[in-house]
């Protein structure tokens, strides 16, 4: 009996010793000098990524890759151009991991949120942009393969971070006084039909046109109000000042690319109203973040 007791004691001691070596539970992580217990994840949290911002590079493939991988700007993804063999293989470059900031948006604003590099994924697409002719700007066309590739990539990103359609934007939407990319030939409507980004309903546009011709004069004040409600950083002056005109141009490049002269016409007014009705029916003019986080 004594021996049995001794053996039991040995087992007990060994057992105790073993418990200290047993693997840690999943919600406990060891670090040098401290432990982290993640047993109580808070309900009050959301994704840091809120926006998807699309660009063109205004450079060829080699130059785009060099600028974005070795220069002072970057993007999470680079979609190759028409001349690249990667395009036929449906391959995009990832230049920055999605949990890191890429430097693509610069000084930027949407619905009162600024510094959008902090909260966005950036996709750069190889396209030369435009060349100036004597009369106007000549825009380089997009390759359908690029658009299909952007669509597949964007769809995944949108799903991963639950990005709402009105937060899929062009660089010119968030920096209308500085940028024109991805330009008026970018097929936003086609992408919206593929489930990527926002597009107004034509019946609602007709409703807000209220019998006016599309190129009738519109109300600058209404356009300023509705563009601000939708998300643009636009002055509320009631007059077509330079900033207002540039912002209307950015809006038109996205939603009414047949004429992006910055004119405050009736169709522009109706499109802006239709977008607000569809995506932000309850919004006020927003100069501050509408979703400011609670803090303690
Ligand atoms: Zn850009």
Characteristic key phrases:
single chain; 296 residues; Muramoyl-pentapeptide Carboxypeptidase, domain 1; 2 domains; 10 helices; binds zinc ion
N→C terminal distance? 63 Å
* Ligands bound to this protein structure: zinc ion
Strand order of the largest sheet: 5-4-8-3-11
Quaternary organization: single chain
CATH A-level architecture of the largest domain: 3-Layer(aba) Sandwich
Structural class: alpha/beta
- The number of distinct helices, counting runs of at least 4 residues, comes to 10
CATH level-four homologous superfamily name of the largest domain: Peptidoglycan recognition protein-like
Q: What is CATH's topology name of the largest domain?
A: Lysozyme-like
* Structural shape: globular
Largest sheet: 5 strands, mixed
Estimated helix fraction: 25-40%
Question: How many β-strands, per DSSP?
Answer: 11
Strand content: 5-15%
pLDDT average, as an integer? 91
Domain N-acetylmuramoyl-L-alanine amidase: 37-183
Organism: Erwinia sorbitola
Catalytic activity: Hydrolyzes the link between N-acetylmuramoyl residues and L-amino acid residues in certain cell-wall glycopeptides
Pfam families: Amidase_2 (PF01510), PG_binding_1 (PF01471)
Structure in words:
- InterPro entries: Amidase/PGRP_sf (IPR036505), Amidase_domain (IPR002502), NAMLAA_amidase_2 (IPR051206), Peptidoglycan-bd-like (IPR002477), PGBD-like_sf (IPR036365), PGBDSf (IPR036366).
- It catalyses: Hydrolyzes the link between N-acetylmuramoyl residues and L-amino acid residues in certain cell-wall glycopeptides.
- The chain has 296 residues and is α/β, with parallel strands linked by helices.
- It has two domains: 51-183, 3-Layer(aba) Sandwich (Lysozyme-like); 202-279, PGBD-like superfamily/PGBD (Muramoyl-pentapeptide Carboxypeptidase, domain 1, Orthogonal Bundle).
- It contains ten helices and eleven strands.
- The strands form four sheets. The protein has a five-stranded mixed β-sheet with strand order 5-4-8-3-11, with helices on both faces.
- The longest helix has 20 residues, at 2-21.
- Zinc ion binds next to loops.
- Zinc ion is lined by residues 55, 171, 179, 181.
């Amino acid at each position: 009996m004594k021996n049995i007791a001794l053996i039991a004691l040995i087992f007990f001691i060994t057992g105790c010793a073993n418990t200290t070596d047993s693997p840690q539970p999943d919600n406990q992580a060891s670090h040098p000098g401290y432990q982290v217990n993640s047993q109580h994840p808070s309900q009050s949290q959301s994704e840091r990524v809120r926006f998807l911002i699309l660009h063109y590079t205004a450079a060829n493939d080699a130059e785009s890759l060099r600028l974005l991988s070795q220069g002072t700007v970057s993007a999470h993804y680079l979609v190759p151009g028409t001349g690249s063999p990667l395009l036929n293989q449906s391959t995009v470059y990832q230049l920055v991991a999605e949990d890191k900031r890429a430097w693509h948006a610069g000084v930027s604003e949407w619905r009162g949120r600024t510094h959008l590099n902090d909260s966005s994924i950036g996709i750069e697409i190889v396209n030369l942009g435009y060349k100036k002719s004597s009369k106007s700007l000549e825009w380089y066309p997009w390759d359908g393969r690029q658009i299909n590739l952007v669509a597949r990539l964007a769809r995944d990103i949108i799903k991963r971070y639950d990005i709402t359609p009105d937060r899929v934007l062009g660089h010119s939407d968030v920096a209308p006084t500085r940028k024109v990319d991805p330009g008026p030939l970018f097929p936003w409507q086609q992408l919206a039909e593929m489930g990527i980004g926002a597009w107004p309903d034509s019946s609602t546009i007709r409703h807000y046109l209220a019998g006016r011709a599309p190129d009738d004069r519109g109300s600058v004040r209404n356009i300023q109000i509705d563009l601000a409600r939708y998300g643009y950083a636009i002055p509320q002056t009631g007059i077509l000042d330079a900033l207002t005109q540039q912002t209307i141009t950015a809006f038109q490049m996205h939603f009414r690319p047949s004429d992006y002269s910055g004119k405050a016409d009736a169709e522009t007014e109706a499109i802006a109203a239709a977008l607000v009705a569809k995506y932000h029916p309850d919004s006020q003019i927003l100069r501050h973040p509408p979703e400011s986080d609670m803090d303690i």
